[in-house]
């Protein structure tokens, strides 16, 4: 799932193929196999029977983080995936989802969600959590990387079988909202199906998660993880 926006309104793209096909993260290349063991591929089943896809990332033995706009009735979370066509992956159900209680689906503020897995994850070389940035980390990272199985461009809804990645440079100009988000500019970046995947910056930490794309401005926004660490830690500790 991915959100596209013009100047004033964000429009959620709802139509997805129920099967992944050849495609790629926009402007990127195939990642080295299993080089990102924190990555998760979410199959999201809505109440009306539609199926969509989102990215996510493992943050503990029980929790995966993704975007709140990926909320669904049920989920399948696959870990240890490089080639989705391969049988060599771990797929789990979700016991409970925790979208941010102040998430707004009109402007997609607080676009963050935790999924508690139904089964404890056993870590191995292909399945590992990523460290989350906190308030003590660099508040203005520049060079980052995003990855996912999403589409090649906004005109092609076919998704990639294999994990792809692309470097993005964060911007801090007037077009980027200052509160709770990072932004990157340019045509390269995440595509449809990449929502909820991590924005990985300095020291290999997850600084953000993929939220919305503004095609007219060639701007992508990412929920800023350090601003939500208290909320994240509270859920993971008590739920």
From TrEMBL:
Keywords, comma-separated and alphabetical: Disulfide bond, Hydrolase, Protease, Serine protease, Signal, Zymogen
GO cellular component, one term: extracellular region
Top-level taxon of the source organism: Eukaryota
Enzyme superclass (EC): hydrolase
Gene3D superfamilies given in the database record: Trypsin-like serine proteases (2.40.10.10)
Entry-linked PANTHER family: GRANZYME B, KALLIKREIN-RELATED
Name of this protein: trypsin
Provenance organism: Poecilia latipinna
């Amino acid at each position: 799932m991915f959100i596209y926006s013009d100047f004033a309104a964000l429009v959620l793209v709802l139509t997805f193929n129920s099967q992944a096909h050849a495609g790629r993260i926009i402007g990127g290349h195939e990642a080295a196999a299993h080089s990102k063991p924190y990555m998760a591929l979410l199959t999201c089943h809505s109440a009306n029977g539609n199926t969509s896809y989102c990215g996510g990332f493992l943050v503990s033995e029980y929790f995966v983080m993704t975007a709140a706009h990926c909320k669904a009735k049920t989920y399948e979370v696959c870990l240890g995936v490089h080639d989705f066509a391969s049988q060599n992956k771990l797929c789990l159900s979700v016991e409970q989802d925790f979208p941010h209680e102040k998430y707004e689906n009109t402007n997609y503020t607080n676009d963050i969600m935790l999924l508690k897995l139904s089964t404890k994850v056993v870590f191995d070389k292909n399945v590992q959590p990523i460290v989350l940035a906190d308030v003590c980390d660099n508040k203005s990272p520049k060079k980052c990387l995003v990855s996912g199985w999403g589409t090649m461009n906004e005109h092609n809804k076919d998704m990639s079988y294999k994990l792809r990645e692309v470097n993005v440079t964060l911007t801090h100009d007037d077009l980027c909202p200052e509160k709770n988000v990072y932004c990157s500019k340019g045509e390269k970046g995440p595509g449809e199906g990449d929502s909820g995947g991590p924005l990985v910056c300095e020291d290999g930490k997850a600084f953000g998660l993929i939220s919305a794309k503004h095609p007219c401005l060639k701007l992508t926004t990412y929920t800023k993880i350090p601003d939500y660490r208290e909320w994240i830690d509270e859920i993971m500790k008590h739920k």
